[in-house]
Every structure is written in C-alpha cells, then in structure tokens.
Amino acid sequence: MKNNLSYKILEKTFKNENSKEAYKQVLKWLAVNVVGKEEISKSTSYQIIKDQKAKIPTFKLILYVNADESECSSNFCMKCKNMYASFFQIEKMHCEECKLNAYHKHNKKYMESIVSVYQKIMEDSGNEKNN
C-alpha cells in the first residue's frame, strides 16, 4: 500500500436552490479545474461534503495535494545522512534512534486500524445490499 501525505489546499462552497444542481456545480468545477488538468489531477484528491445545517442545499469541496510519504522520508534521510557525514565525518548512522522512524511506525499502526474499520464497514454495507 502506497502511503500519501495530504495537505488541504482549497476549500470551496457551492450553493443552489436545488440539491442536484448544487452537486452538479461541484462536479463541473472539479472537471474543469482539476480533472481536466493532468498536472494537477495526478497529485490531488478531494472530498465533497454536504452541509446539513445550511438553509439551502450547500456542498463543500475540499481539495488536497498529495505527496508520496516514502519519497519525502527518503529525502529527509538523505539530507540527514549528508549533514551527519559532513559535520561528524562518521560513516555509521544511528537511524534506529531517529524520531522520524518512530513517527512512521505510529502512523502506520494508526492507519492500519482505520483501514481495517473502514473495510469492515464497507463489507457490512455490501452484505446488506445483497440481502
């Protein structure tokens, strides 16, 4: 499983008297401004949330930019090794003491538990429709 880091880059609201039309506005905007632009679409993800408290049908679009976590981590390690070698001129690194590794292990366990719960929910909802 590829791990991504995601950062929110945009939050946009779409309103219309008709819920279907408001949702279509979101999709049209996404098609033109994100999906239709390959350089943007390959590294973004989005979330569409219906605002249940709004007086007229309202959808919130949240756009995220994604980065490959392993690439960011390896870049960090490379910089650390270069700095370590240039200042301390020692060949042996002490990566086992790196706080970044502990952070990644924690995130991995956390995400595995979330994925497990979501997979169970999706399996259960699939079984309900088949009954």
Taken together, the total number of domains comes to 2
H/I helix tally: 4
Order of helices and strands: EHHEEHH
**General form:** elongated
Amino- and carboxy-terminal Cα gap: 31 Å
Explain what the structure shows.
This protein folds into 2 domains: 4-68; 94-131. Helices cover 56% and strands 23% of the residues. A hairpin with a 7-residue loop joins strand 2 and strand 3 (58-68). The protein has a 3-stranded antiparallel beta sheet with strand order 1-3-2. The chain has helices at 19-35, 38-41, 69-88, 99-130; strands at 4-15, 44-50, 58-68. The chain has 131 residues and is an alpha+beta fold. The radius of gyration is 21 Å and the shape is elongated.
Key traits:
3 strands, 23% strand, 131 residues
A few lines on this structure:
With 131 residues, this protein is of the alpha+beta class. It contains 4 helices and 3 strands.
What's the helix and strand layout?
Blueprint: E1 4-15, H1 19-35, H2 38-41, E2 44-50, E3 58-68, H3 69-88, H4 99-130
Antiparallel strand pairs: 1-3, 2-3
